[in-house]
Amino acid sequence: MTDIIPFVPFKLAKAKKKSESFRGLANKAVKKFPNLETELLQSRIDITPVEYISIALYSTTFWFIVTNAIMIVSVVASGEIVKNLYLIPMVSLPVTGMSFLYLVSFPMMTARFRAKLLDRDLLFALRHALIQVKSGVTLFDTMASIARGGYGTVSEELNRVVRDINAGVPAADALERAGFENPSPPLRQVIWQLSNSLKAGSDIALTLDSLVAEFEKEQMNIIQKYGKEMNTWTMMYMMAGVIMPSLGITFIIVM
Question: Global pTM?
């Protein structure tokens, strides 16, 4: 769980208590952010949308007061209060506005960052799973092995699934829940296909085999696309760093 959020002056537990007076306004404002609940789940910020918006409003008010106090002291210290009075709202309003916008978009940015981490390690975890399942290991033991296997955020996600199953949740339900709560579309696809295979009683090895082949193909397409982009940037670098200076020096010498 994320305990520290930028622009929130206290840890979440303390900020929740201090922001209780903003709950009424947050109940009205939360309707403007329909995706916030999903983003909080996927970014592992374990609070409700109303609590998060109230913390955002509290933090914005906090920084508005702090910024105004600093600017008032600075204007008074300048000795030209009337002349520099306009600087107070000019600085405090943008700062507090940016802090609020950052806070309400923080769960979405964190979820996207987690999705990149999940996508990075997913193919390696799938290969591990395929080898285990083809060797006769059960799906549960395979997920437990990946959870201990050091596959970064993928291991963390599967560790939650294993923990839910150990707590008595059916494997298919635990997988469906993990699919909803993680921000990576490829991992959601993997989890839901595994869940459907469990419900249908189909061969897990065949499902994993097709998933590995599909993701390998996608990775190759991404690498080829990146290579083409790098060729373009390399040409531009050659033009800017080598050819143009050489021609410029030659032109200067001729002149």
Answer: 0.77
